[in-house]
Amino acid sequence: MVASIATSAFFPASSGKSPLSKSANGSGETVKAVNFSTTPVAPSQSSRAKSAIEAVSKVEGYAAIEPDKVAPPLPSTPAPRTIYNQLPDVSFWLATVMAIVIAAADRHFTLPDWRPKRPDMLSDAFSFGKIVQDGLVFKQNFLIRSYEIGADQTASIETLMNHLQETALNHVRSAGLLGDGFGCTPEMTKRNLIWVVSKMQVLVDHYPIWGDIVEVETWVGSHGKNGMRRDWHIRDYNSGQTILRATSLWVMMNKLTRKLAKIPEEVRDEIRPYFFERMAIVDEDNRKFPKLEELNGNSAEKHLRKGLTPRWGDLDVNQHVNNVKYIGWILESAPMAMLEKHELAGMTLEYRRECGKDSVVQSHTTVYSDCTNSARQDSASIHCEHQLSLESGANIVKARTAWRPKQGQNKGIVGTVSTAHA
């Protein structure tokens, strides 16, 4: 019924005379219909909607609210001003940035390489080291730091010797032969065996300065039945010029009894695949070292330094004095005039016995000049015989050193700064 009333309101019946067949009160009397104009004016949409709403409200029994009488909406109040709603709209810029990022990813766009291009500043120049030449040679680079140079503004011999020792241990570790001990293979660890150096020879071509990068190569080879040979070659990283060459002989010692031992076959099988038969020094110094009594009996210049004792920092993990420390003790008795005008060109060391933390050492140096004219000795080559001995007289190390006049070519940054401030 509601639907029909609403329909009739929007779609009124056509005009004309139409008698009703049934009276409004239900009787049979005929009632005449009211005549409408043949051309009625169509009601507006709003009036038809109003009529429909009134008809529906009368049928359903509730009062309809006319559209014209609906209260207008309340005016909206603006949001309170805060720091957030006053910020500028950056959505456009964010969308632009995201579009650039997506486009760069699609085109595999890469940023310019920010790393410096100088060879001495490459990050991989100071890597841990690597094994080269079919796994037989270990190579590692070192930067000469300010605290490693001496009064000559060059790296000290102790610094270079520390580089030799470091690369030797890193070589063993990189090859996978490092057991629980310090520089020991797994089979050596099982038998309480350690390596000890018996002889070393070093030839120095020139000394690097602060900021230089040195490239150290080391490898091992066989030596007799119960020994191993290890060689080194140090070059300048940028120029490739030789800085130092060294060779050494190593034997085994029982860590508990402190006596020399033979190399077991199990240990030899571990290290044999890494032997590389190449010699860093072809003409080795195999001359016999003189005895201390023979040195005291000649008329050469002699120097003695007593009371040298090891500090805790001088000991290695095997609880004896580090090999590099012996070199410092040898130079303790060298005359200052020679150190000021000459530089170490080479040395040969023969290790006789270990030195413990409670030992008291004496350093003996005998100086021989290649020139008999004292006025020209500053420009002449010098060689020295050295001995380190305990107070009891037992020999620890015998050494022979060769010295050449300083060339004056070492002009580092430190010297330039000092001259400018003088």
Automatic annotation (TrEMBL):
Q: What is its EC number?
A: 3.1.2.-
Domain (Acyl-ACP thioesterase-like C-terminal): residue spans on this chain? 299-404
Q: Which locations, inside or outside the cell, does it occupy?
A: Plastid, Chloroplast
Q: Which keywords does this Swiss-Prot/TrEMBL entry list?
A: Chloroplast, Fatty acid biosynthesis, Fatty acid metabolism, Hydrolase, Lipid biosynthesis, Lipid metabolism, Plastid, Transit peptide
Q: Give the EC class as a word.
A: hydrolase
Q: What is its main location?
A: plastid
Q: Identify one Pfam family in the record.
A: Acyl-thio_N
Q: Domain of life here?
A: Eukaryota
Q: Residues in domain Acyl-ACP-thioesterase N-terminal?
A: 1-124
Which molecular-function annotations from GO does this UniProt entry contain?
acyl carrier activity; fatty acyl-[ACP] hydrolase activity
**Cellular component GO terms, alphabetical:** chloroplast
Domain (Acyl-ACP thioesterase N-terminal hotdog): give its ranges: 135-271
Q: What does this protein do?
A: Plays an essential role in chain termination during de novo fatty acid synthesis.
Q: Which family does it belong to?
A: Belongs to the acyl-ACP thioesterase family.
Q: What is the name of this protein?
A: Acyl-[acyl-carrier-protein] hydrolase
Origin species, per record, is: Rhynchospora pubera
What lineage does UniProt assign to this protein's organism?
A: Eukaryota, Viridiplantae, Streptophyta, Embryophyta, Tracheophyta
